[in-house]
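P.,

For your records, the input lines for the assembly:
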Amino acid sequence: EAQVTQNPRYLITVTGKKLTVTCSQNMNHEYMSWYRQDPGLGLRQIYYSMNVEVTDKGDVPEGYKVSRKEKRNFPLILESPSPNQTSLYFCASSLTRQGGSPLHFGNGTRLTVT
Amino acid sequence: DAKTTQPNSMESNEEEPVHLPCNHSTISGTDYIHWYRQLPSQGPEYVIHGLTSNVNNRMASLAIAEDRKSSTLILHRATLRDAAVYYCIPRRQYGGSQGNLIFGKGTKLSVKP
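Structure tokens returned:
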């Protein structure tokens, strides 16, 4: 089944403890992206990648890192999480970055940083 | 980036058609119009997209105005499962970050039994 898989679904951690949220897609998509969703602020883009080894900042990249060493994987790294990164995170992918390419989303990762 | 305007909320009765409007008067000639929906506690889900012509798929229809400054998502027979937030988003055909999807606040659709 074609899908975007995020892990874990839920994560509770403490301030400063490095963590990684994984994202994998099995559709050979070039484009991948991370969003966070907060009440009242909607979905905001953190980082995106147009292909392997090509990543760029979205609207809210501070405090996050990403890597794209393989086409299928696009992990989101929080080197030193802080409480303001408590949020619902979504990974997404599309065949290309071009306008006619629909985005497919994962089921989300709910992160709590205490 | 093209700006979109959608009603904050709409209500519908089950089994009736729903027309969800979106204004995108600053859209570029190469922007596709995408629609996504987000059910409670789930990730956004692709619904439909188009460029100039009206489009149909198993989920919905998309009617695009001739001047492309607005579009309407049509759910032909609303079900309770269609209750969600619906987002209308332009996506640039070519060009770096302008291929990114920028989400607005969307329209919250309620469906009454």
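Two observations worth noting. Chain B has no helices and nine strands. Chain B has a mean pLDDT of 91.

Regards
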